[in-house]
């Protein structure tokens, strides 16, 4: 038998998105188990509605009221599954808070997720955009996940290849993954752990702190300190982290740009392409710290758009479009937003 559901109507989503945009949903259901998810999908009153599966709401821009049902993933649970071939497998349910989960793994004596400390959002959202920071991406520590297939009503186990991870991207952001709802994620953490200090800023922070061989907890503390210094706390200033992806251009195009802009920040990729720093491009266009209506560019990091208070989706969109236009005009580079527009 399917469980009873508590369906809320005309529900404010302001506290469900880190941008703090006050849009409303026609219906809202908190999902605390796979059985509740199945019940929500089978519920006749919701059957004809558009669906939005929401985690921590840290990677969305609500462009207006949502005329449909929001399924707010709140499935909880985490466990150490045991050792397999040099790794310890740990599983967490989709509704677990990401940073709390990272701290929990560290408390179990397990390293591997520390570079991803303090990223807002939930465990279930981590694979969707292959969250990454300070030289580590979800795909590097990923084992598998369980997804609920809304078309067949069945649970499906998916490995990394099936998830098609790429830079801030996965199958879940594309049509092929649209009917899949992630219910839990399993990570493979190295049994023999070594710090990953390949990201220059992190290595520098370790050196400055006099940490030659930091522990996983110490790396986590360093990452938390860097993030607190550069990124706004969504609980205080509404934002969705990096608003744009770092654009990737051909080596040839990068060389042309460098000839005109010698200070251009760029990082060579394994395939010969070059990743440009969107924050630098936006900064150079003079947008850092500037506002357009109720939306603004964070003064300490030009890649982050913020809600100055009372911003609506259209304010954020107008600011994003103005930035994109300026960067395109000056550098001929098209910026691509990272969050999903709803
Ligand atoms: N820069 C500027 N001005 C700015 C911001 C950045 O000149 O206002 C320059 C910096 O000096 C640096 C370069 O741009 O040379 C890159 O900046 P940074 O190292 O801070 O990283 P990022 O490219 O801005 C990316 C991720 C972040 C992640 C950090 C650390 C993307 C879109 N963003 O930011 O991810 O935390 O690296 O790994 O890939 C997120 O996705 O929400 C996010 C915060």
Shape: globular
Instruction: Look at the structure and give the mean pLDDT.
Output: 96
Rg estimate, integer Å = 21 Å
Strand content: 25-35%
Compute the number of strand runs.
20
List the ions, cofactors and other small molecules found in this model. Answer: uridine-diphosphate-2(N-acetylglucosaminyl) butyric acid
The helix-strand sequence is EEHEEEEEHEEHEEHEHHEEHEEHEEEHE
Which ranges are low-confidence, i.e. pLDDT below 50, for 5 or more consecutive residues?
A: none
Roughly what percent helix? 25-40%
Predict the CATH topology of the largest domain.
Answer: Uridine Diphospho-n-acetylenolpyruvylglucosamine Reductase, domain 3
Descriptive overview:
With 342 residues, the chain is an alpha+beta fold. The protein has three domains: 7-73, 2-Layer Sandwich (Uridine Diphospho-n-acetylenolpyruvylglucosamine Reductase, domain 2); 78-190, Uridine Diphospho-n-acetylenolpyruvylglucosamine Reductase, domain 3; 238-341, UDP-N-acetylenolpyruvoylglucosamine reductase, C-terminal domain (Uridine Diphospho-n-acetylenolpyruvylglucosamine Reductase, domain 1, Alpha-Beta Complex). Helix content is 25%, strand content 28%. The protein contains nine helices and 20 strands. A hairpin with a 2-residue loop joins strand 8 and strand 9. The chain starts with 6 loop residues before the first strand and ends with a strand. Uridine-diphosphate-2(N-acetylglucosaminyl) butyric acid (EPU) binds at residues 133-134, 199, 201, 241-242, 245-246, 265, 277, 279-280, 283, 288, 301-303, 338.
